[in-house]
Amino acid sequence: MATKFRTVIGILKDKASLIKATLSITNRHTSATRVAVQRATTHDTSSPPSERRVSAVLGSEGSRRASCACIEALMDRLNATRSAAVALKCLVVAHNIVSRGSFILRDQLSIYPSSGGHNFLNLSTFHDKSDTATWKLSSWVRWYAAVVEQNLVVSRVVGYYFSNEVSNLGNFKIRRDREEKLLALLTSEMLSEVEALVGFVEITRDAPDSWTELQKNDLVYKVVRLVGEDYKLVQYELTLRMKEIGERTKGTSYDELTRLQSELKRLEDCKERLMSLFLVKKRDSDFWDLIDQVKMKVEETIMERENQKLVRFGERQFFHEKNESSRFWNNNPFIESEDELYRLRSSTGGWSSNLALMPALSV
C-alpha cells in the first residue's frame, strides 16, 4: 500500500513539475529544455530514463545560452529533489552529457556554476527517508555522484573528456596521437594523471554492497553499466601511462618511483572488489598483469637505488675513517713528523753519522 501511495504521489509531482516548467518560463526554448529535463527525471524508482528522453535533453544545445539553460535546469532538478530516483536519473543524464553530449554542453557542465563556490555534485549527505527501498537507493545516489564528479576531475587533469573517447578506441590516428602526447609529458606530469585515474578506480570500487538492488532494479543496473564503460576507458588510459612509465624507470627519480609505487599499491587494493563487481574479461586480466609487471620493475629499481646508496655511504665512511686516522698520526706529539726527521737527519749528516758518534762496543 505504501509503495502504491508513493508511486501515485510521484506521478502527481511529475505532472505538477511539467506544468510549472511549461508555464513559468517566458522563453519558449528554455521552457522546452526544462520540460525535456523533467520528463527524463521522473519519480519512477525502477526504470532508467529512456534513450528518447535522454536524447531530447542532449539535443538542447545550439547556442551557449541554450546549453547553459539546459545544465541549469538539470542541476536545479538534482539539487532540489529529495527523491533518490529523481537524483539518480539526473546523474544518468549528466553522465550522458559528459560521454555523448556536444562540447558546449560538456563545457557548461564542467564549469557550472560559473560563479564557483558550490559543488553541485557533492551529494555525500543525500538520504531519501521515504522507506527502506529509497533509503538503500540513496547509497547509489551518493556513490554515483562521486563517480560523475571524478569523471570531470580526470577529464580536467588529462586535458580531454576521456569518457567521450569510446568510439575512438579503434581509430589508429587518435590512439597514436594519445601515445605521442604521453611521450611529450614529464614523468611528474604523467604521475599526476595517474593519480587522478587511480582516484576514479578507487571510487568505482566503493560501489554499494546492496546487490539485490542491482539484480532487480533496472535503474541501478543502468548506472552500474555506465560506470563499467567508464572503468574500461580508465583501464585503457592507465595502460598507456603504465607502459610509458615502465619504460622510464631507470631514468626516474627516487621520489617519483616511490610516488608511483604508492599509486600501484592503491590500484592493487582495488583489484579484488572490482573483479567481483564487473564481468572479468581478457582485457581485465591483461591490465592487472601489466600492473604486476610495473610494480615488480619499480620495486627492483628502488632496491637497486637503495643498494647504491648503501655502497656510497660505505665508501664515504671508509674515507672518513681513513682521514681521521691520518689526522691522528700527523698530530701525535710522540711521533716525529717527516719534516722533523729530515731536519735531524740533515743536522747530523744522516743516520750513518749518528752511528759513527756512538762509542764502539767492546767485544
UniProtKB/TrEMBL annotation:
InterPro entries: ANTH_dom, ANTH_N_plant, AP180-like, ENTH, ENTH_VHS. PROSITE patterns: ENTH. GO terms for biological process: clathrin coat assembly; clathrin-dependent endocytosis; vesicle budding from membrane. SUPFAM superfamilies: ENTH/VHS domain (SSF48464). It holds the Pfam family ANTH. GO terms for cellular component: clathrin-coated pit; clathrin-coated vesicle; Golgi apparatus. The keyword Membrane applies. Keywords: Coated pit, Cytoplasmic vesicle, Endocytosis, Golgi apparatus, Membrane. The keyword Cytoplasm does not apply. It is found in: Cytoplasmic vesicle, Clathrin-coated vesicle; Golgi apparatus; Membrane, Clathrin-coated pit. Its main location: cytoplasm. Residues 25-162 form the ENTH domain. GO terms for molecular function: 1-phosphatidylinositol binding; clathrin heavy chain binding; phosphatidylinositol-4,5-bisphosphate binding; SNARE binding. This is ENTH domain-containing protein. It comes from Ficus carica (Common fig). The lineage of its organism: Eukaryota, Viridiplantae, Streptophyta, Embryophyta, Tracheophyta.
